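thread from #wetlab-drylab

HS: before we spend reagent money on co-crystallization trials with PRP, can we at least see a predicted complex? here's what I'd submit
DV: go for it
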Amino acid sequence: MNSAPLSGLYGPSLSLLTDLYQLTMAYGYWKQGKQNQEAVFHLYFRKPPFNGGYAVAAGLAYAIDWIESFHFSEDDLTYLGSLRGTRDTALFEPAFLEYLRTLRLTCDVDAIPEGTVVFANEPLLRIKGPLLQAQLLETALLTLINFQTLIATKAARIREAAGSDQVFEFGLRRAQGFDGGLSASWAAYLGGVDGTSNLMAGQRFGIPVRGTHAHSWVQSFGEEEQAFAAYGDAFPDDSVFLVDTYDTLEGVRHAISVARQMRANGYELGGIRLDSGDLAYLSREARALLNEAGFQKTRIVASNDLDEHLITSLKQQGARIDTWGIGTKLVTAHDQPALGGVYKLAALRPSADSDWDYTIKLSEQLAKTSIPGILQVRRYETEKGQPRADMLYNTAEPLPEQLTIVDPLDPTRRRPIRSTQFRELLEPVFRAGKLVAELPTLEESRTKAQQEVAALDPSIRRFLNPHVYPVGLEESLNNFRMQLILEKRAVRPA
Ligand SMILES: Nc1ncnc2c1ncn2[C@@H]1O[C@H](COP(=O)(O)OP(=O)(O)OP(=O)(O)O)[C@@H](O)[C@H]1O
Ligand SMILES: O=P(O)(O)OC[C@H]1O[C@H](OP(=O)(O)OP(=O)(O)O)[C@H](O)[C@@H]1O
Ligand SMILES: O=C(O)c1cccnc1
């Protein structure tokens, strides 16, 4: 069902969905004869989104799909061959285009499975392979993982606020284009919503589809009772009436009147939807009217620019809302429209029998200085599976007996590791370009996300000033990083 989310969406080749500079660097590597030097890149973000305490990894299924189909088509090569530099000479020489024609990916890819809770600085993906190939993957992997991790995280927060209430994603019309809408539906479901209004997401991904009706339905009848009766007639078992076209509480009375007629015919009104006004007050009033009329089971759906904060507030105000319809603020990740994930070179070796040369990107801020090595993320957990701390370590170096983790932002903060219960988060996905992982279904990744978020301490899940989950560098990796920073930093006399 979910093995190929991208297939057919953009035609036969997606390899030019990248930045020009990936191709100019690839050409440069090829001209230098460096194309097959073995390289290691890590994809990670530096701060969880929405000022939150965690993120939910997503986008890997799309990424696998993209990697599997990676090749340059004849059309791609013709286009690349047509590109000209400022002197009107060809940007890429024909022999390079020939090289691209037969290029197939042979990288090893390790990834943290979708639905896993992840934190700042942890590689979500580790790419190991020929420098030119690993470079060519950068942009597309960032596009896919950044967006979907962002939306899955937003959905997990909305799920947290909504508790066990139903939540439906209604965002397609406000999404960032067609694929923004489609992949947001995927990621939102993975992150914990119960369904979508987006039919293509239902068709392609098997996500349950749900919906009510729009104001236009009522407007087309000019008055509510007729409109509701006609809708109830068309969908006697599946009706939710939108009651706020003219006056919300009058709308609820009209819905009750039609619900009585439906009941007389053996059918039950499923729900009403509120889409404007004070949703706390109106939902309480609507609940009282419905209950008085004997419609205790008729659900109250609410929509209108909702997000996790409004849901929390409405619940605190005693709103009687059973189902939340969330569009704009979910699919556009309204309060943080992008996750700043990056893709950094961490190790290089000229040939298979030479030693790794670890590389670093310096920055004025330690937070933006990259982490060298061939990294793995080890998550230490309690016996009940509650995450306690994550350790990043270099798999190419032996681990000491006594483990200590060091805060990458403040090396004076360190803690010894005593726990022996852990799991390694990065799992093999591709080996030498061949898919070796068995892909979970979207449903399995969604279940995983819910379990992983639930296992987090509430102090990490809270929205306001969440506790920072400890992620540290294994001490010898930290020492090595510091040494490399000192070596690379230009010393300017005072
Ligand atoms: N009780 C409440 N507490 C806090 N915010 C609320 C409450 N009720 C509704 N809101 C939110 O206030 C915002 C604006 O609501 P408002 O009533 O102005 O809707 P509106 O969009 O102007 O209505 P209309 O669709 O008729 O134009 C929405 O984001 C809505 O979710
Ligand atoms: O508010 P969102 O979270 O984006 O949820 C989706 C919105 O889409 C629909 O509104 P519509 O497009 O008809 O316009 P409206 O904003 O005027 O209600 C629906 O009635 C919701 O209000
Ligand atoms: O079905 C709905 O109620 C719906 C669908 C899309 C957007 N807003 C609401």
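DV: Residues 170, 173-174, 214, 275, 303-306, 325-329 surround PRP (ligand 2) (CB under 6 Å).
HS: ok that's useful, forwarding to the group
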